[in-house]
Amino acid sequence: MTFEIPELEAAAGIVMTYGYLVEVVELEQLRVLGRERARAIFARHSSRG
């Protein structure tokens, strides 16, 4: 799929809705933002015991 979204934050939000099913191919900034958000989600849920 290809999306044209003018704002990086909005694009990251859309990407995250697809979870593990998505791979960001272009725009390294979006890849980094997605990776940071995924790590934050993991950290939040893995620290609960």
List its traits.
elongated; 59% helix; single chain; mainly alpha
Short recap of the structure:
This protein is mainly α. The chain has helices at residues 8-17, 28-46. The protein has 2 helices and no strands.
The tally of strands reads 0
Order of helices and strands: HH
Estimate the helix proportion, in percent. Answer: 55-70%
| Poorly predicted regions | none
Residue-averaged pLDDT: 89
Number of helices: 2
Distance between the termini: 38 Å
The coarse silhouette is elongated
**The biggest beta sheet, please?**
none
Radius of gyration from CA coordinates: 12 Å
Alpha-beta classification: mainly alpha
* Amount of beta strand: under 5%
What do these coordinates show?
This protein has 49 residues and is mostly helical. It contains 2 helices and no strands. It has helices at 8-17, 28-46. Helix 1 crosses helix 2. The longest helix has 19 residues, at 28-46.
Question: What is the topological layout?
Answer:
Layout: H1 8-17, H2 28-46
